[in-house]
Amino acid sequence: MGGSGFTFKRFHVDHGRCAMKVGTDGVLIGAWCRVPVEGRILDIGTGTGLIALMAAQRSPHARVTAIDVDAACVAQARGNVAASPWGGRIEVVGLPLQEFFPQERFDAIVSNPPYFEESLLPPDGRRTTARHTRSLSFQDLARGVARLLAEGGRFSLILPAGGAERFLSVARGALYLTRRCDVWTTPSSGVRRVMMELAPRPAGVVPETARLVIEDGGESRYSAEYRALTRDFYLKF
Question: What CATH code is carried by the domain that includes residue 143?
Answer without folding.
Answer: 3.40.50.150
